[in-house]
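As promised in the previous annual report, we have extended the structural survey to additional targets. Below is the entry for Neurexin 2.
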Amino acid sequence: MLIYKYLRCNEFFSYNLSQTPIQSSLDEITLSFRTLQRNGLLLHTGKSSDYVNLSLRNGALWLVINLGSGAFEALVEPASGKFNDNVWHDVRVTRNLRQVTILVDGILTTTGYTQEDYTMLGSDDLFYIGGSLNTADLPGSPVSNNFMGCLKDVVYKNNEFRLELSRLAEQQDPKISIHGDLIFSCESVEALEPVTFDTPSAYLTLPRWNTKKTGAISFDFRTTEPSGLLLFSHGSLQGTQPNRKPRADFFAIELLDGFLYLVMDMGSGSIKMKASNKRLDDGEWCHVDFQRKGRNGFISVNSQSVPFSANEGSEILDLDRDMYLGGLPEDRQAVMLPPEVWSASLGLGYVGCVRDLFIDGQSRNLWRLAEVQSAAGVSSFCTRETHVRCTRDTCANGGHCREGWNRHICDCNGTGYLGPSCETEATMVSYDGSMYLKVVLPRTLHTEAEDVSLRFMSQRAFGLLMATTSQQSADTLRLELDGGRVKLTVNLGNGKGPEVLLVGEKLNDNEWHTVKVVRRGKNLQLSVDNVTVEGHMTGAHTRLEFNNIETGIMTERRFISVMPSNFIGHLQALSFNGVLYLDQCKNGDISYCELNARFGMRHIVANPVTFLTQASYLAFSTLQAYASMHLFFQFKTTSPDGLILYNSGDGSDFIVVELVKGYIHYVFDLGNGPSLMKGNSDKPLNDNQWHNVVISRDSNNVHILKIDSRTVTQHANGARNLDLKGELYIGGVGKSMYSSLPRLIASREGYKGCLASVDLNGRLPDLLADALHKVGEVERGCGGPSTTCTEDSCYHQGVCLQLWEGFSCDCTMTTYGGPFCNDREYSSLMSLWIMSDGGSQGVVMHQ
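The corresponding structure token record, generated without further manual editing, is:
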């Protein structure tokens, strides 16, 4: 009569061979099995380099025999399907000296030979049936989990004796040890259904893993997405003594750019191993098996095994916190995220399927866990949808669509929009050179990988876009405008100094530009508008420490020798490792934002001053513009003429910016004679409106004059350096100097009106506080005319002329006179009256 065994993952039995050890050259093993599970130990005996192991692995039959001269391995697969089809299968393995034969369901499937001339199998250990206490630790075992299903007619015989192992177990033979609730009948075995993590925020919480000295985990996964955290757990903080940073043991398996990595630390330093040499994001099932004993072990992917050895020291892996599968909780304050686990730092949850999770040989019913935890974004079964999800309109506002695992993924970089489909406008923040937005993080963070992106718009060639800063070190990851280019500076620990990358040119064009930084360890990528440069960091350090994320102004200055210039412009869509800080600050999602910058697209006028008379001016130290130059300022006036900026130099060198009949003139001499560039504005600029002026000269002697949105370019030959000396004058010069100014300079008076946002080649002076001296009336702010022209300012069709002090009525073309062209008494006169705050004043001219 046949005896059936119903075996769950924690049930097995063993036979003690110590009194009847095996020593044979001829063996035969027969058994029958039925299961829905893909992996599990069927039978094992022996130790060290003398053993026999028969297992199911990924639905195929694996036989491993070692007679002391090396392992013989045989894989048997059915012609179609798998052996885990819930149908009975009969197995017969015979060995005659070195020849091995395997029959499954009466069909000869494999014949082979063991290595060299060893022919004897010896075992005085245990004969395991259906599993063991630590299957992963069995020599030659290709699996780490026990069998789940039904076994019957398990018999081993050799040329000396026959062991009917299943019958002996049912009869409770004294040499038999039964573990767990073994049932001697065959019942339906519940299949371990796969689960799908539908979104990157989905995850499951698993029980704590007691793996201090040994441990084994196996599972299958399937995805088309390149990166995501598969498994993670950590222990309690250790080493909290003074002058020693606390640390915790941890264990992680992650997918990065299509490759699988093992990352762990047992207290003596972390190890990070690439477990696969081929990409695994091809949508096919992959089997992962991790086994450890002390400091040593291996991780295998689809039977390709990679050994590892932890650093000398502790042999204990102390994980006393929950284990997470597929991702991490949204509130991660209680989770210690090691910087070595890049997917955790980057906020990359796994999207795809997982099945057959076994921990130390014990199965985990993932769908039941998902139901109990009401896990959002976790669904049962695993189906790969074949239809294309990305269409022309899938991502709004120009977002780029790519296919994910049963979902579309919208890349909203460069669009100014956020959300799953780029449907929500990103928060804009405006900065005027005195404004900042600073995120003071709740705790010090350490990262080895960063994804940073933002958009900016500025007319200044210099200015801080974003920087991480630390209260304890000079560590920083900083983005800034430097001469119209984007500059990335990364400084880590006590390395060999910062790594610097530059990309782009003429980015101070008042247009939106998209910046992206990708760092993975020592490798850097910096992109602006899809133009990318790469770098590799020197030195041993890869860890970035920071407490703050700062924009606009760098306020944490204790470890920096050269401060980046303050930013004037607009920022949008700042994302640091998946966190949208500008939007979170505006929406109140985080409470640790400090700012005086203004949300929204604001018109920016920074540090304005008013020159009240054309005899007023300010003097500064020499303008430093020898090899290149970037100047920016804003002006607002009603006066058509006036000298705005002047600096003389050695020999004939000089630079001038002036207003002539309402148009900007840029005059310069680098030693080749004076040259004049005129702004090509479509109308005079003395219209009491703010106008933006950009003047630049690069190392190739290309001069650019841009007023508002209109640009003039000139390529100069000859000398390329501007050798200035003496004081820089802003607003005018001394009255006696006008007559001696170089030719091509038209001004004979100073500038009257407002100046703001003055950028002197990367320096943002406070015009009043930083001036070496001031002449005349210059005051802070820009009030402008208190009385302005309206339709009814002048009567009888008199023409209203806007002046800085007020307005005047030109009555020339009327038959009236007086300050408002409403006085008949002066009808025969040509009168010009000026209205000001103090009343009227005028000059009367007789015809």
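The chain has five domains: 4-179, 195-380, 426-599, 609-780, 799-845. The helical segments are 165-170, 342-345, 366-373, 581-587. These points will be discussed at the next consortium meeting with the crystallography subgroup.
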